[in-house]
What does this fold into?
Amino acid sequence: MLAETLRARVAEEPFNLVATIIFVLAIVHTFLAPMFLRLAHRFEKKHRQALEEKGRKVKASVKVQVFHFLGEVETVFGLWVIPLLIAWMLVRDWSSARSYLVNGVSFTEPIFVVVIMAIAASRPVLRLAEMIMAGLARLGGSSTAAWWFSILTAGPLLGSLITEPAAMTICALLLGRKFYVLRPPPSLAYATLGLLFVNVSIGGTLTHFAAPPVLMVAGKWGWTTIHMLSLFGWRAALGIFLSTAVYFLWFRREFKSMASVSPDSGADLLCRDANHCEADLRSAGFRSLWLRGPQATLKHSGLRQEPIPTWVTVTTLVFLGWTIFNSHYSALILGGFLFYLGFVQATKHCQSAMSLLPPLRVGFFLAGLVVHGGLQGWWIEPVLRSLGRLPLFFSATVLTAFNDNAAITFLASQVPDFSETLKYAVVAGAVTGGGLTVIANAPNPAGQSILSKYFPDGISAPSLLFGALAPTIIVALCFMLMSDQSGK
It folds into this structure.
């Protein structure tokens, strides 16, 4: 029955199959991205050695840049929009392709993620988030393990208030400064990344406005924050704590070996990372101090105590709240962001230098995913309709790994006569699988972009999948085995 339906839809519109083939190729590309990065590093080394042997000045290699571009996960789906549009023009015409891009898809979510990432990465927000998590970390002696546990539990749950993209940005930045900078072993590094993605994916389900997959259905299905708390919230919180505790116990030896090096909460709040430290310090008025050397700069006690006035933090939170409140209206998001940029310029003495490149790369990734995802409904919708409660839950979990979970729930909201049991199953499955791949949940590219510099050969998709597998199973048990047949 399902196979006949899919064959009929392909016969009715052959371009459905073409669009899905291109989408599958894009997904394969995401899994091959680390290989392209390794090739880029290898070619760059050979290129540099060849020029140095000839006594010539080292110049950029086009070949190296091309392979580096192909290895950036954030560029994949945007890149594959090009063959999609070419195929569209060959099968149909340009006017219909243009109409689809202008009227058929909404780019509000990518715009929202770009703006929320930029504001959430600001120094006032980071300082406030660190203060909250520092209070929890002090319960464990402010050790590396205590910071790790605090960030991976409190941070994702904060996502229900400040939205998942903001929570992902803050957690990834703090993990980089408090944990990844200590160079954990690869197994722990990938386990932490997978755990972060899973926890953030379910951490926004305590409210009806924070998680993209919930946003897609909350209005149409009449789901409120009370509904989310009673149905999803406590299960999500339980899943987060259980998953984090399991990994904490599993890697206790690794944490003990890292205990001799304690993360420093000093200047790293001002410096995003070593590559940006000079720019950040100059923007904050510490140029002369930087010229004395990075080590002297980072040890400077005055820099550690750089104050942020309360009114600056409150105003930044107001801008953050404005963006969240108007998350469905791109004009209001962009208008508020322009005012925010002026505010940052006026208060630059207590701000870090703003880098829009990471948010824009993530936005480009999501925009490409939206373009491709909007053409996959022909096969996702009949698949969802044909399944019962448990099969639907597990199918949504698996499908989420190959398509953004917000797209899964959006397509589910278009299916008529969906029972409350099936509504619960599809949303629970979508958020459960949100950590399996980079493309599974909209905020994941933000975390990948921030933390990729701590993975020398790029983030491996199979390793990420393996790292997220155990937390995903634990969360699945919390959502399904602890609910009755009505889904409540």
